[in-house]
Amino acid sequence: MSPIELESTLSKIIAAGLKRSVMVWGAPGIGKSSIVSQIADRHGLELLDLRLSQLAPTDLRGLPVADGSVSRWLPPEFLPNAGKGILFLDELNMAPPAIQGIAQQLILDRRVGSYVVPEGWFVWAAGNRKEDRAAVYDMPAPLANRFLHFHVDPHYDCFRAWAARSGIQEQILAFLAFRPTLLNKPDPKSAAFPSCRSWELASELHALGLGVEAAVGEGAAGEFGAFLVTYDSLPDLSAILAGKGASLEFPGEPSKKYAVTIGLSTRALTSEEIKHGFGWLLAKAGPEWVQLFIHGVEERATANGQIGLLATLVKQDARISRFLRAFAKGAASE
């Protein structure tokens, strides 16, 4: 499933109060932990993120202490004792069997030793798959059989929606729109490889004027560098957004088409700029590029809390309203 579908599913599980254990599977760097964090924030839940691969058995079980003639386990202070939240056992299958055994007690019995998970807490976990070449251990069948298993895959549209509220550089977004297969491409021969997480790092490097090979590897960085050359020959985006693009033509090369459209949707911040960008694309480009522009503007407006401004603009500009109705009608007939 896509990250957006996973978010929707987990939200429904929380809304229903379903305390079944959840296991989220996916490649490294696609945002599994971020999705769970966003879900916790959205529902006003505390999040306790435990990286099991970094814990020792006593970190999770606690320590035995003398109590008269018997010994009792003293639970670790970081485990929740009250309230509502998500106990998130990340990197579950990267943890050695001894840790997985203790985690199994939390997952199956909602307790370990003398510690009991509070009623208001959900117990979820996440891990990588063997095909991702992650250093994982096999999950015992009795443990696996107690989970609800959800497999999440990277999707550019989901990444773009997240990027709209995260300040990812427009050149990164335009490049990935043109080359979506490079959004997530593990490379067993390189420590740095493309993933949703590493493209965020690449955006930070690019903002500093640095190369991105340290984040996404030499292959993806080379393609991105070649793509950046196209920016030197793009139409003047500032002129287009100022309503002065009548003499400028929409490029014919696919990479430049993506660069222009994503660049306009990223830079169009006011209602006038949105109208000018929309009008220019409507006159110069095909409907698929106008739709890509509208999607980008909508995601950015939603991320910035300006969706009301966009709705007002749709009502005021008959061209935008007609286009959206025609596009919706065409999509419904397919």
Written description of the protein model:
With 334 residues, the protein is an alpha/beta fold. 51% of the residues lie in helices and 12% in strands. The chain contains 15 helices and 9 strands. The strands form 3 sheets. A 5-stranded parallel sheet has the order 2-5-8-1-9, sandwiched between helices. Strands 3-4 form a two-stranded antiparallel sheet. It has a two-stranded antiparallel ribbon with strand order 6-7. A hairpin with a 2-residue loop joins strand 6 and strand 7. The two termini are 23 Å apart.
Give the radius of gyration.
Answer: 24 Å
**Protein structure class:** alpha/beta
Shape: elongated
How many domains would you count in the coordinates?
Answer: 2
